[in-house]
Design brief:
The chain is α/β, with parallel strands linked by helices. The protein is built from 5 helices and 5 strands. The protein is globular and about 35 Å long.
Length: 114
């Protein structure tokens, strides 16, 4: 909801799962490292939503990048996505349901520390 209000494109948990099955999707979890270690979208990397470096993102500025945080009211993912757009990334989306929506959809997760 917040992402749409910020003019960002969104993606549902099920749509993200389909994109992941096709490959070539980067998923960025901007929750706390503790949350990331507890449950995350498979293959998601954990980045600080404000302090990530451009080198943390794919070199292909046309690649699909999906950001998510905790739930629909969290602003960290939309803010991080907006920053990626400002860096020239063209295919940025926000899974506005967050990890809560992913879990509520009963989709597979990964856990554990780095």
């Amino acid at each position: 909801m917040i992402a749409r209000l910020m003019g960002l494109k969104t993606i549902s948990p099920r749509e993200l799962q389909q994109e992941l099955a096709q490959g070539q999707t980067s998923v960025i979890d901007v929750n706390s490292p503790q949350s990331w270690a507890t449950a995350r979208v498979p293959g998601a990397v954990n980045l600080d939503p404000v302090a990530y470096r451009p080198s943390d993102l794919p070199s292909d500025k046309g690649a699909l990048i999906v950001f998510y945080c905790s739930n629909t009211w969290c602003r960290k993912a939309p803010n991080a996505a907006r920053r990626a757009e400002s860096l020239g990334y063209e295919n940025v989306r926000v899974m506005s349901a967050g990890i809560k929506g992913w879990l509520d959809a009963d989709l597979p997760t990964e856990s554990g520390a780095r």
